[in-house]
Structure formats: structure tokens, C-alpha cells
Amino acid sequence: MSVKHALGRGLELGRSLLQLGLFKPAGRVAAKLRGERLRVSLSTRTVQPQTFLPARFRFFRRSLSGLAAQLQSGAFRRVAGGGAPRNRAVFLAFGVGLGLIEQQLEEDRTSAALCQEIQAVFRKKKFQTPLKSFTSGYKLEDYVIGKQIGKGCNAAVYEAAAPFATPAESGKCSLVELNQKETDEDNKKAGPLRFSATPSFPLAMKMMWNIGAGSSSDAILRSMSMELVPACPQALTEEQREFALDGHFGMVPKRLTAHPNVITVYRAFTAEVPLLPGAQEEYPDVLPARLNPQGLGSNRTLFLVMKNYPCSLRQYLGVCVPNRMQASLMLLQLLEGVDHLCKQGIAHRDLKSDNVLLEFDGTGCPRLVITDFGCCLAEDLGLRLPFNSCWVNRGGNACLMAPEVATAVPGPGVMIDYSKADAWAVGAISYELFGQPNPFYSSEGLESRTYQEQQLPPLPASVPDDVQLVVRLLLHRNTRKRPSARVAANMLHISLWGKRVLASLDRARMDELTDWLLCQSAVVLLKGRGSGGSSVEAELQRCFLANIDLEDLRAAVSFLIFGPRHIRAESAMIRLYNGWTRAAPYESLRVADLGDVNVNLFDLKDTCKRIREAYREIVATGCIPLTLGGDHTIAYPILQAVAERHGPVGLIHVDAHADTSDMILGEKIGHGTPFRRCVDEGLLDCKRVVQIGLRGSGYSPDNYEWSRAQVS
């Protein structure tokens, strides 16, 4: 918006505000302003999206009614009757400011409407099942069952085939073939792997172990209803669909819609337990008595039919190390799958690499799907679970249980919030994707109940900074600082495909980002018409655009463009030589980026403790720390760590503030007290302290006299 237009709009709104404030009740002023803006918008659009404004604009917007009331006061009437030029300038400035706020509001309306339109376009295209549709398969006799391909705590999985089920497209490959191809490709240093072999068993059949549910179909379906959460609408027969499936908590469980990163159950039926290959050796105790006299199982159980995937994520990572781009795309797929669950009020609660299946697209990129919903939370209460007793089931995987779940204490009215629990588990699995051991596994690993962020091991230096940032944020103990799966996925999308727009982006203005969204939409629509439309990358881009939301997008941008990321980006511009001073510091010094120090935004004392402990480790190595960022308070814990090793130190301090107050807002530790505390603890050699640029005037002589007394 040009300055001339801003001034004109500001004067117009300021004049309207003056007139309305003088002659209308205060309540009608704000209503009038809102009404005029709505009428203007309605003339150009039929859809009115929700307004999104940065906090500073929302504050001024909410304050309009209060300001309008003040305009009716007698003092204001006198000013309006004939005020000084200075007063008129004040109201001109107010009008300009209000005009800028309204301009920002209009830009946000436009951006929100654009996001809704993009959503509508990409939500029209439904996810296509990887298998051709079929109408049979509700009986065990309809299938040919092959060898066992997996076994868990409550089920065994077998490969299966049926004449009516042929794969539409497949990336099936055995682990032996995969390992051999990976070795061959490494030796040849060729391009990405490609897998297009058609399996003779396109289906996988999961046979649940039924120990206590009885042998009636109704009882079995009620007891194992959570396994049916990812079932398609045709998975059950019409009779079985009418059963009231109670779920774990006495309510009908939800059903998932199809998604490329979530398993789909094509058929679910009950049948008598057969004697399948390896049953007597692998799981004899859960067989019924007619097959094993010592068995504890019932005669009938639940069978689930789904697509047969080559391997689990855990098996794949055991023989292959994905490259940086593939690992980033795999992380993004997990976040998209978790976001899909959250949007439908479902928490998986047992995410681990064993419960993620894998196949390959036409380019050899791994495609991931989340499976095994036996421990999921899929009730009408959404992602919150009443935790009034220790007998309430928190979930299945203790190692990857989010801190807010693991540390919950049962009691009256206690609720466990699972809205970000699966996202935390994805953060832990990320280490495996990038070739590192999961930090929460093994007896020597971290515990989610007690770990601190600074204990997390670093990811390899080859992992992009933005990806490392996403992983660190996902593993925050504090859910307020942890992004949702949607926001984390948006961060990766922008990082992977929007680097250029990110470099020039301002959080308050979305023009560049909306232009990029339009370009991405066009590119993805064109890709969808070609052979590349079924690739993992194309699917991810469609998911991103189908779920685009201005508020979540702005949150993702805020994480990416502010703070340490920009400090690092700008420091990369530093040249190696200064022609004026003839200094070449990098020839005589070794400089390393040692990462960030995690702080506690809600506890200043804990933040000081974390900074002190981090700098103890740095100073102990003999390094000289150079710190960027933070407020004045950080000088105190840093000097504590330095003085522990070197004794009292000198100080050159350049600032307008001396930071030698004894108290600030009733607290001994704060941004105005760090050097007072350092002197109290003997951390500074006061005869070697120089403060430059201090403000000449102050509120009292106390601090100045105290400073002088330290060197006398």
C-alpha cells in the first residue's frame, strides 16, 4: 500500500471516527466501523473467512470501542472545537494507524479466502485405493493364505491372495531383494532404486488372537472394535455394520476416512481359527483347544484384510539408510498421517517403526502408512481421555509415550490430552529415519517421564537446519511450545518447496506466501495429469494444499523465519577478510556452531540453571563461548559458568543500561539485575569492569553510587 493511499484511508477513517464519536453512542461506533467493512467485503466476495491478525493488530482492533467512548468526553469536544496543530497531528497519526490496521485486515481476509479456495480444489480429489475394488471376500474360504509375514503381541499376519483382488499398482519387493539392490546400487553409484515387481500375494491377512472375547461374532467385534477404526465402509457385511460396536469406553468408535499415509482395512470378518503355517511353533498358547489341548484361545476370531506391504519401517531401516531427502519426506509422511488422525479426533497411542508399513513409488521413494490401531483412542470425547483411575489404559508403547501422558497422575476430573502425543512420538522416530538410534530405546536411553531437552542427542550435521528445528520442537516436553502435527508438516513443506519465498517473507504480510501457494497449486494440478501424479512427493503436496489453513501456515512461518535460524542465515554472509582492518580471524581461530540452549519460557530460574549447565560443558573443553540472542539476564548464568573455571573475570559492557539494580519488579533475578548478582557472588573483578554508553540520566543516584563504590 502506498503512503498516499495509507494517508488517504487513514484520514477518511479518522474523520468517520471523529463524527461517529461526537454524535453516536460508543457501542454504535465500533458496530458502524465493522458494518462498513463487511459491506465492502460482501460486495466483492460471497465467502467471509475468519479474520486472522497478528496480536498487535488484534489489540488495536479490540480497543476501538473503548476509544470511541473516550471520544465523547468533554475534553475531546474542546479539542475538536479548535485544537492546536500538534493535537491535529496526533489524530492524523491515529487515523493513519487505523488505516494500516484495516489494510492488514483486508489482506488477511484475502489470504484466508485464498486458502479456503485452494482447500476446496484439492479436497475434491479423493485418495484412490491401491487395490481395485471388489465385492467378495467376507469368508475365510475366499482367500488363499501363504506364509507368515509378521507377528505382534496380539495377532499374526499372513500373506494372502484372492482371484477377485488384483493390485492396481505395486512397489512390492522382499527385504532380501532390497538389500541386494541397495548393495549393487552403492557399488555402481547409480541413481535411486526402482521397484515394480508384482507380488503373487497382493493382500495381507491379520488374524487376531482371541483369548477372552468369546466365540460369538457380536462379542468379538465389540471386543476388537478399535482394529476396525481404519476400515473402509464396505469392510463389514451389512449385518455386521448394524452391530453396536461399544469400543473400549462404552461408546461407538470413530471410523477413519482414507488417506495415503494411513492403512485401509478392506475386509473384516469372523471365522473359526485355522491351523496356519507356523502356528504350532510360533503361537501355540493362543490356539483353541481343538488345535492345541493346552491352548487358551477361543474357536472364532477376527480377520482383517488389507494391502500387503513389502516390509515395516523398522525392517527397512535395518538394511537401508535413506538419503537426506528421502528421510525428510518420510518424516513429512508420518506428520501428514498423524495430522489426518488428529483432524478426525483419533490418537494412535502406539506409534513406533514396527507399526509403520512401507512400499516404494515409481521413483524408489519410500511410501509410509501407519497401521495397527488396536491401542488407539477413537471415542466421542475426541483426543482427551478421562484419567480417574490407574486402571485406565494410557496407550501401548511406554518408551514412546509423550511426557504429558507418561507423567499424568490419575484423579477426579483429570484428563489426558493426546492432541500432540502422536506428534511427539514422530519426533522420537525421526532419529531412526536419519540413521541414529532412537534416544528413548534401550535401558541406557532417555525416559519420556524425566528427560530434559538438552539431553537429546544431536542429529547428524547433514540433516538440514529446518528439519533439525522441527524435530527439536516436536520433542519439547511443554505442549505449549510443541507444534501440532499440522504446523510441523507445514514447516517441512515450506522448507522443502518454498525456500526462495521463505528468504524474503515477513510474518505480518502474506503476499509472497499467497503467490507461492498459487504457483504450487498450479504445479501440483499439472503433475496430477501426468505419470508423476502418484509419486510420494505429489501426494504430499496435495495433502498440504488440501489442508492449508492461514492460522497454521502463519504459525509455521513464525517458527521458521525468526530466532536462531535467521542469526545463522545472516552469519553465513560474513566474509573471511576485512580489508579495512586487515583482519582474517578465521585463519587464526576455529569457530563452531554448538547449537541452541533450550530455555524454559515459564520459569526464569530454571532457564538460568539450563544456561549455566550448558556453558559449564562448553567452558570445560577450553572453548571461548560467543553468544547471540537472549535478553540481559543471560549474562548472569554465563558468567557463573565462566567464573567457576577461570575465577573472577573482567568485563567490557556496551549498553545504555548498567543492569546493576538490586531488584526489578520485586525479583532479585531479572533483565536489570545481572551484574549486581555477579558482583554479589564474586564473579567479576570490579577493577577490570568497563561500562560504555550508559544513559546520562536516571531515576535515582543509588545505582550510580553503588557502581562507583565497587572500585574505591
From TrEMBL:
The keyword Transcription does not apply. It catalyses: L-threonyl-[protein] + ATP = O-phospho-L-threonyl-[protein] + ADP + H(+); L-seryl-[protein] + ATP = O-phospho-L-seryl-[protein] + ADP + H(+). It is found in: Cytoplasm, Cytosol; Mitochondrion inner membrane; Mitochondrion outer membrane. Keywords: ATP-binding, Autophagy, Cytoplasm, Kinase, Magnesium, Membrane, Metal-binding, Mitochondrion, Mitochondrion inner membrane, Mitochondrion outer membrane, Nucleotide-binding, Phosphoprotein, Serine/threonine-protein kinase, Transferase, Transit peptide, Transmembrane, Transmembrane helix. GO terms for cellular component: cytosol; endoplasmic reticulum; mitochondrial inner membrane; mitochondrial outer membrane. Belongs to the protein kinase superfamily. This is Serine/threonine-protein kinase PINK1, mitochondrial. It comes from Cyprinus carpio (Common carp). The lineage of its organism: Eukaryota, Metazoa, Chordata, Craniata, Vertebrata.
